[in-house]
Design a protein that fits this description.
3 domains; five-stranded antiparallel β-sheet; Potassium Channel Kv1.1, Chain A; alpha+beta; 684 residues; Kelch-typ_b-propeller; Neuraminidase; 19 helices
Length: 684
Amino acid sequence: MAQKITGSYDVILKVGDSTFPCRRRLLAEYSPYFQAMFGNNFIEREKTTIEIKGVDAEAMAVLLQSVNRKKVDILKSNDILSVLQASSMLQFESIQKICVEMIVHQWLTILTCLQTMVTAEELDLITLYHKAQALALWEFSHVRETDAFLELPVGYLQKYLGNDGLNTTEGEFEVFEAGLCWLQDKLEERKECVLRILDCIRFADIPLSDIKTMLLYPIISENTDYVQILQCIICIKEGKNPEEMFCIAESEAQTSRDSLDADGKILLDKEEDSMSKQKKAEQCKCSSKKPKVQLYDERVKVLNNCCFCRISVEEAITPVCDSELAVETSIAMDDIHDKDHVQFSTGTIAIARRLLSTPSRALPLFPCIVGHKRDRTGFRQRDSNDEIGCEKVTVDGKPYLIYFQEGTTQHLVPFLHLSKANEGPLEPTGYKVIFKGQDLYMIGGEYLLGYGNWNQSIWKYDLIREMWNFETSIATPRRHHSVCCLEDDIYIIGGFGRHRVIMDSVEKYNVGTKCWSRCASLPHNLYSAACCAYKGQIFVFGPQVYFYDPSSDKWFIMPEAALPPGIAFNCAMPHGEWIYLTGTYFRELVRFSPHFSVTDVDGRNSRFETLGYFCHNTSNTCLVHNVIYSFSTDEDGNMYVEAYSITEGMFSVLWNGHSNTEDSNGVSDFSPKHSIGCFPLIKY
C-alpha cells in the first residue's frame, strides 16, 4: 500500500511490503551508505520512494526508531541478528556497535552461538565471530543438542566439527554421533555428506571398539564403500598392511562406486589415481626377483615368497605377463574365509590412511601466570611472614594475567589487568586465582595483615564477554588457602583465618547451583599446600598425602606415602597415572604415584620419584598438554621461563629477562613469594 510523504519527511524507504517515511538528512547523518546515496549522482537522489532489498522489515523499523532517538530495546526484537545484518549492510555503524555489544554481553548463549558465528562470518565481524566460535567450540557437548546445530549448512558443519579446538568431553565418537544426528535430521537431502562427516573425526584417537560400533549404524552398514573405509581403518589400526591384502577387482570397485555419493566418487577417483602413481614409483624391493600374479577369482589364495615381507609360499602361483594388471598379497591363510575375506580398493586404502593421518585435536592452551606489570602507583602487599607494623614496600607493579607465547619469537604477553585485586586499599595478600573453563575466579585474601580487612568477594571474569561479575561471597574469610576444581565444584582448602589461625576447614562452591557446602575437615591444619583433582578425588600434599572422596565426604591418609624430608609442595599437576609436584623454595621436579611404588636410587620403595631439576626455584608451575612450565623470579628481579617435556624427559630454559628488557613487555615479576595462580589458559 502506497504511503504519501507528510510533514517533515522527504523520502520513503520501501522494504518488502512495508514503507517507512524518513528524513534524508537524518539518514545521511547516521549512515555513510545513505550519505553517499543522497550526496552523489545516484538515481536515488531524486527519488521520493527508494526500495531497499536484502533487509528485514522489522529490523529496518528498529534501525529507524534508533535513528529517530526513540527508545527501543533491540534485544526484544524478534531477531537481533537481523538488526545486526541490516545495520551492517546499510552502514549504521553506531547501531551495529550497539548490536555487537548487546549480543556479546546479553544474547550470546549455547543456544545462539552457532547462528551468531555464521552471521558474523558473513558480515566479516571478526571479533564477534571469534567470540561466538569460542563459546561454540568449548560448549560442544551442549551445542550439538541445539536446533541451530541441526540447521548448520554442511560447509559450516564440517568447519565446526573439524576444528582442532573442539572440546570433545567424550572423545571422537561424540563427534561421529553429532554428525549422525545432523545427517538424520534431513536424511534424504544430506545422505551424500557421510564422507564429509567422517573427514571430521580423528580416527587415530578413536578406540577400535568405537569404530566397530560405527559399522552397526544403518547409514554406514547399508553403503559398501563406507563399510570398506571403516574396515580398512580397523585393519591398519590392528597393525595389518591393507596394501598386501586382497584388493577388490575393478569391476567390483565400479559397482561399489556407483552407490557412493558424488563427493565420495571424486575423492575415490583422486585417491586411486594418486595410489596408482605411487605404486609405480614405490614397488616392493623384491618385485624384480619374483613373478607378479593376477587374481582371476576371489577364491584363489596367494602368498608371495618375499624375504623382505617375511612371507612363505603356501600355494603355487601362476605367473602372468608384466603388462597385465597385477595384485600382490600377503595375508595369513587363517585370516581368509573364502568369500568372506576383506577386500580393499586402492582408493579405499588411500582414504583410510588419510583419515588416520589427521592430527589429534589440541585445545589452544597457553601457560599462564599471575604476575605484575610495571606501574608507578602500584604496591606490593606484605608477605604472611612480615611483621604487622612493618612499612609497606612500593614497587612497580599491578597484578596481571600474563601468558607465555611460544613460536618464532618467544615472549611474555600481559593479557588482563586483575582490576578487582586493586579495589581495596592494597592488593590483597594470599588471594588465589583459578581458571575453570572460560571463566577466571579471584578468591579470598586479606588487604591489611592483622587488621581483619578481608576480601570476602569472589569475582568471576568471563573470558568471552570480557567482563567482571560478582559471583558470591566467600563462606569463611581466609588467605594462603589452596583451591582446586572437580566437575562443577570449587574446593577451598585450609589457609589462614582470623587471628592468623591455620585452618583445617574445607568448603566447596557449586558454580551451577551457586550454593556453598561444608566438607569434612582436613586431617591436619594446612596453608598453601599443593592440591589437585585426580580421577574423581582431591589430593592434598601436606606433611602427609591426603585424598578426599566426594561421594563419602571423607578424607583418607596414605601412610605409605611419606613426603621426602625438607620438602613442601605448592603445585600439583595430574597427568596420566602420575601427579607432578613442585615447591616454592627448591628446584626439584617430583612425580607421585597414587597407585604403585617406585624404587629410588638407594633401592628403597617410594611413591615419589625425582625426575630432575629446573635451573631456578619453581615458585609457579603449570602443565600444558605434555609440558610443565616453570615461572620464577630471583632476588635481583631476573625472570625465567623453563620447561620440562614429559614425553622427552628433557629440561630447557625457554626465556629469561628483566623488567627493564624490551621483550618483558612491562612485566616486573612472577609473584615469587606466593603462587597467586599458574594454570593453562584457553585462548581461541
